[in-house]
């Protein structure tokens, strides 16, 4: 889940050296093992494929180079994430269909999955038709049948091209109940790809909706995401939710046996495997040198070709130290301190006519450390993966700036709870307050 275009491993973190090709190889190795014991293995993506590295950020639509690479992976079903739905032009202040999902549509990415790109509660704004498919029945090699849905949390700040329908309203809709009535009796289990935190109450609402139609003994596995953490919880005797990190730092494995008659519950197992080639090989029962197989090697070859074509590894500068994203502002290695006191004053805040200039930036804008040594094109996009749009207001009185400053330090914000305030606030301001 939440790949965010981290398909090539991490140059600055040797432990997280696995690529999408290695993940594909793990799936193929697990399928080989499954054939020996006549068990089915399925492979899912849970959304947020873009915004994270140069493979996304360098493209005008933020998805172009990803399309051909993701298409090489043998996914059984895929979900949509919130990052596919952000307005590219100034966070919604510029209207029109400027968002990554239209790029995926126009590139044929949604159609190429043959109904397996799932959007249970996301529709096109103009037509009201689902962006992908509302659900899909997938079948394994040994006959396992899974009814799969793909939900996104109740996202409000989406682009103009789509509408995100309320999750609980969707669960109560006629099409959702009808899908369960038509397919549940001929389905071995239900999988819910849910682009939301594994603890989100909306997951419980979805499972309640399933239970109301399909009964209490239908196995339900929820694949969660969005919050970039690892977690698992049991929802009831026959359902569990699992979230497997982000940015290919984790490949999540979940498994369960179909319920035997008379059993009061299903035993769910899960594992979080580091995005490390040795760990993936171990999970597949191979040594590291034997992990890659032909499909994975083809993905890696395509990755290398795209990176060369985009010159992502070309050095454009050099850093004298490591600058850390979450270091306190006063520390010498604070990336935000460097950005606020060095970058912004030189690039944005040059005084004009002797008037002071001032900037406020949300601290989620920078998402990855700068490391000592050569600084590449890809490093620039991993550090700052989102479009930069600046809105200028002139001749503001000092008391207005002071009031804004006070609010940003003390007022409510959706991200404040996730970052210790003694380390890094939700917003950084730079400029003279006089």
From TrEMBL:
Query: Which cellular components does GO assign to this protein?
Result: cytosol
A Pfam match is NadN_nucleosid_C
Give me any GO biological process, just one. Answer: nucleotide catabolic process
Residue span(s) of domain Putative 5'-nucleotidase C-terminal? 325-412
Q: Which GO terms describe its molecular function?
A: hydrolase activity
PANTHER family xref list: 5'-NUCLEOTIDASE-RELATED, ADL392WP
Protein name per UniProt: Putative 5'-nucleotidase C-terminal domain-containing protein
Q: Which organism is it from?
A: Zooxanthella nutricula
